[in-house]
């Protein structure tokens, strides 16, 4: 009797070293990582319950409270599953903003709730879609792409619709619009709604003060954060139905991150290296200062606007006050193929992106996040953009 063992050769590709070309990432994210963060990320692993790691988690919580401007003790990072790194505004990074988004929504919404979505682009649509999947009634209040929704209209919608939760994306990366947030928190408090803000593409690049804005819950994808002010934990504790997700249960996560002062329970195994990297990123911001970081992004946005103008290019968001300083959308000139131009830039080692959702074909998106918010780098990117447009044009 012969026993035939099927042997399969290992994939040839895996016998070669991986090739990662150098790249300047000026798209909507990820953006380039500072060397100090990359080095910290590759330090040796610790166990996730070792005292030194618990201390690192504590440092991360302090850093998050600092950048979100909140005293709230329920401030922690949500581990996203997925294994890509990103770093955007203020050199922070994490894994998957969707984890922050879903975590917030599964904790804050219950069957029977009413959800008001302020839609200035794709991210409002995504929030509405998630709520739809949860069987929640959704009302959208939208602005034409490139514009924000007037806060008076939002206040009116809150008063009339009386939602349980209001979603606003502070900086929509599909349009480059920064939605003003002032007074929305007051209207929410007055009418018993919770106020949820997506700061994935805006935190550190434009001012944000969670406590002053009366935000109940805010997340920022780059560092996968969920944060909620005092009182909200109580609300979640008093839900009629248990949170449908164990992984994203904010009270479980809060305990794991040491927010509730109780004995720490095992919830999941934190991505150790990611947490190291998050601490390094927060440390970089602490050293620069959060307000200084915001100012640098604003100043360098002016550099970008001036460079665009010099090369005859126009921002998509006409009202300068509504432009997201760390992500600028640029009109694609007539008869120019945006993809051809972006492809030419990529060959030269520089990434910029096309539109997203409804803005595909109409715009390019140039992210100037974290260490990429730098005058010389920005001027070089616009120079290359202009050269690539001219090359495309010469073929017409
Ligand atoms: N919200 C906004 C405003 C975003 O820009 C993004 C990603 N570009 C997300 C949420 C989702 O983040 P992620 O791709 O990390 O899941």
From TrEMBL:
It comes from the Eukaryota. This is Alanine--glyoxylate aminotransferase. The gene is agxt-1. The lineage of its organism: Eukaryota, Metazoa, Ecdysozoa, Nematoda, Chromadorea. It holds the Pfam family Aminotran_5. PANTHER family: ALANINE--GLYOXYLATE AMINOTRANSFERASE, AMINOTRANSFERASE CLASS V. GO terms for biological process: glycine biosynthetic process, by transamination of glyoxylate. Residues 99-359 form the Aminotransferase class V domain. Substrate binds at residue 365. It comes from Caenorhabditis briggsae. GO terms for cellular component: mitochondrion; peroxisome. The keyword Transferase applies. Keywords: Aminotransferase, Pyridoxal phosphate, Transferase. Its EC number is 2.6.1.44. It catalyses: glyoxylate + L-alanine = glycine + pyruvate. Belongs to the class-V pyridoxal-phosphate-dependent aminotransferase family. The modification N6-(pyridoxal phosphate)lysine is found at residue 224.
